[in-house]
């Protein structure tokens, strides 16, 4: 008999050779029907793998991430079989599950796969799935595995197998198809009820651009047709909210091949939006005791050697800029922190002067491979809403909590209510990834957990997610489509103060080392605006939106009155403009709806006579006739309901 421990702590004594699915059955038939994958002692196993020793067993259904992973990976085998049947002679490489679905990288030889082929592949794959084939894992010797793929002439699989150790190699069979695979499958192909091929893209073998370019086939599958329909609707909505598309429509930003890829250009409306975000944060920061500083965009290479950034990123980033005569080397600033450390170092401080809180909207530059660039979310130059707090160890806890308060204020003012906090700590198995001593790391990690506890944050601890110089607290936001984004971050750092030899005079008259907090509630202006666009679909909070109201004169006759209205709205600090085009009011209303301007103010004969506005809200609600003062009060009240003072 062996002892199997379940996640709830329950222990089952079962005969050796019992499988995960047997154990599910012993709990309930319903569970057994829904279990699609399993983990035993933290290793992925098949649901039919005989268990031969004591251990911990976790059973997964479609509702678990691990369950979905097994489902999608299993589907990739079926799709690979369909591809082989449809395009004989192709060479399969790897086919993992990803966050949403799976892909398979394939060498199609001469055939160029396109969207026209998708339906055919889906039909073939579904036909195979309906055969309810079991997935059977078997061990093969290295020699046999190599021979199998030599016979097929598949040099990719041969390369994979050559890097594996004899005795650890397994194949997975289903139907007439065999693939090199480590395992982790659903019980049989029959539970795959819907398959969609989503897209194809080029992908270099092993991600190396010197290798051959393969075709990456992306797909997704579901246990119910209804789930696929819902997923496709969500995808459609996500496309509409793509920040690159909305950024163009709303005239916020652009890119120019001449300027260079990954370097956003902010258009007037976008720049004004950024300015409002900056003013909003500056105002709150001022109340929280921050001081603004300004530092240059480049710094001597030595600065980043001291900070440790050069050792970590130097080779893989923008290369040094050289002066023509003295051969000095400068780097584009990848981080603001080293500059702020030198500001701290410019004058002596006593414990009474601390904390010092230096803030800067600092633009930094990081090299990202061109394939990684994406709209405003992955760029090569971006502006952080950065600040560094230098404080004593005794002040650390309070300071950290103050930063949490500020971050929550920022998120709430912008309508993000659905967020989680993640405490990112070291990976204890890979200490070489981090700089600094263990003692400081432990103190810093504990300080973050304490602050998160005291603030009652709903947080998770993730090991291996820390920065190389310290642990951090990250705020993760779910957008309107349920996608996770990482936003603001707060980090504790004992390391840079040492590297820059930062000190303060304590009450004992001795020199002590301050602790440093790095923080950026938005993360970066670029990323934040991208998320805001995708989260709101362009319907920004009223206080932030570029144009709050548009005045629509019924005819040319009323333009003078429209000008008067605009003037007095400007005096009330309402951002408005007049649509003077020679179009009907009906057409103007329809077009304004698309521009997501919150209020339409229609002015004609009657309005002019009574000195009023006919107010219509974005979305169609008619607010009737209002005086300019009444409209201004309405705007102020709505702004104050989301934008509280800090
Ligand atoms: Zn597999
Ligand atoms: Zn920093």
UniProtKB/TrEMBL annotation:
Keyword Zinc set for record: yes
Family recorded in the similarity comment: Belongs to the class-II aminoacyl-tRNA synthetase family.
Cofactor: binding comment: Binds 1 zinc ion per subunit.
Record key words, sorted: Aminoacyl-tRNA synthetase, ATP-binding, Cytoplasm, Ligase, Metal-binding, Nucleotide-binding, Protein biosynthesis, RNA-binding, tRNA-binding, Zinc
EC number: 6.1.1.3
Lineage top rank: taxon: Bacteria
Catalytic activity of the protein: tRNA(Thr) + L-threonine + ATP = L-threonyl-tRNA(Thr) + AMP + diphosphate + H(+)
Pfam families: HGTP_anticodon, TGS, tRNA-synt_2b, tRNA_SAD
Residue ranges annotated for the Aminoacyl-transfer RNA synthetases class-II family profile domain, each copy included: 242-541
UniProt keyword ATP-binding present: yes
Record localization: Cytoplasm
Main location: cytoplasm
Gene3D superfamilies: 3.10.20.30, 3.30.54.20, Anticodon-binding domain, Bira Bifunctional Protein, Domain 2, Threonyl-trna Synthetase, Chain A, domain 2
UniProt name for this protein: Threonine--tRNA ligase
């Amino acid at each position: 008999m062996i002892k199997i421990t379940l996640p709830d702590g329950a222990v089952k004594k079962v005969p050796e050779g019992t499988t995960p699915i047997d154990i599910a059955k012993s709990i309930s038939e319903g569970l057994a029907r829904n279990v699609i994958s399993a983990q035993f002692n933290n290793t992925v196993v098949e649901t039919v793998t005989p268990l031969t020793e004591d251990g911990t067993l976790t059973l997964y259904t479609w509702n678990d991430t691990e369950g979905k992973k097994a489902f999608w990976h299993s589907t990739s085998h079926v799709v690979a079989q369909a591809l082989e049947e449809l395009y004989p002679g192709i060479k399969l490489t790897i086919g993992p599950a990803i966050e949403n679905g799976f892909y398979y990288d394939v060498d199609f030889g001469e055939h160029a796969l396109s969207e026209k082929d998708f339906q055919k592949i889906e039909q073939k794959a579904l036909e195979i799935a309906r055969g309810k084939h079991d997935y059977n894992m078997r061990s093969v010797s290295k020699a046999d595995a190599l021979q199998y793929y030599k016979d097929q002439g598949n040099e990719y699989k041969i390369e994979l197998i050559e890097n594996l150790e004899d005795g650890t190699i397994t194949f997975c069979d289903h139907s007439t198809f065999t693939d090199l695979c480590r395992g982790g499958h659903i019980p049989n192909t029959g539970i795959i009820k819907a398959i969609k091929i989503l897209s194809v893209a080029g992908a270099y073998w092993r991600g190396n651009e010197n290798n051959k370019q393969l075709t990456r086939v992306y797909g997704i599958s579901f246990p119910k047709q209804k789930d696929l329909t819902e997923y496709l609707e969500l995808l459609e909505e996500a496309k509409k909210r793509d920040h690159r598309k909305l950024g163009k429509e709303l005239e916020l930003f652009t890119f120019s091949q001449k300027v260079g890829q990954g370097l956003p250009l902010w258009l007037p409306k976008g720049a004004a939006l950024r300015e409002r975000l900056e003013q909003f944060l500056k105002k709150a920061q001022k109340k929280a005791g921050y001081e603004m500083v300004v530092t240059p965009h480049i710094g001597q290479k030595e600065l980043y050697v001291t900070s440790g950034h050069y050792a970590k990123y130097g080779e893989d980033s923008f290369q040094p800029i050289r002066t023509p005569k003295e051969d000095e080397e400068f780097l584009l600033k990848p981080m603001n922190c080293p500059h702020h450390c030198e500001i701290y170092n410019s004058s002596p401080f006593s414990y009474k002067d601390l904390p010092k809180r230096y803030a800067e909207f600092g633009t930094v530059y990081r090299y990202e491979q061109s394939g990684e660039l994406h709209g405003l979310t992955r760029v090569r130059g971006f502006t952080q809403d950065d600040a560094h707090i230098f404080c004593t160890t005794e002040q650390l806890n309070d300071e950290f909590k103050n930063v949490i308060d500020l971050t929550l204020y920022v998120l709430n003012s912008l309508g993000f209510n659905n967020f989680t906090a993640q405490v990112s700590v070291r990976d204890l198995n890979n200490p070489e990834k981090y700089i600094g001593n263990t003692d400081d790391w432990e103190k810093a990690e504990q300080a973050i957990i304490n602050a998160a506890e005291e603030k009652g944050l709903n947080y998770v601890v993730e090991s291996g997610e820390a920065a190389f110089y310290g642990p951090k607290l990250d705020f993760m936001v779910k957008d309107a489509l349920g996608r996770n984004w990482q936003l603001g971050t707060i980090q504790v750092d004992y390391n840079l103060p040492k590297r820059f030899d930062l000190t303060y005079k304590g009450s004992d008259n001795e020199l002590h080392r301050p602790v440093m907090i790095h923080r950026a509630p938005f993360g970066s202006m670029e990323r934040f605006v991208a998320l805001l666009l995708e989260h709101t679909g362009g319907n920004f909070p009223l206080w932030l939106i570029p144009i709050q109201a548009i005045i629509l004169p019924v005819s040319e006759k009323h333009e003078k009155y429209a000008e008067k209205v605009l003037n007095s709205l400007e005096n009330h600090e309402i951002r408005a403009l007049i649509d003077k085009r020679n179009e009907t009011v009906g057409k103007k209303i329809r077009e304004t709806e698309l521009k997501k301007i919150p209020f339409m103010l229609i002015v004609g004969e009657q309005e002019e006579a009574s000195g009023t506005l006919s107010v219509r809200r974005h979305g169609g609600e008619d607010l009737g006739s209002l005086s300019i003062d009444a409209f201004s009060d309405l705007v102020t009240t709505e702004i104050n309901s989301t934008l509280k003072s800090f």
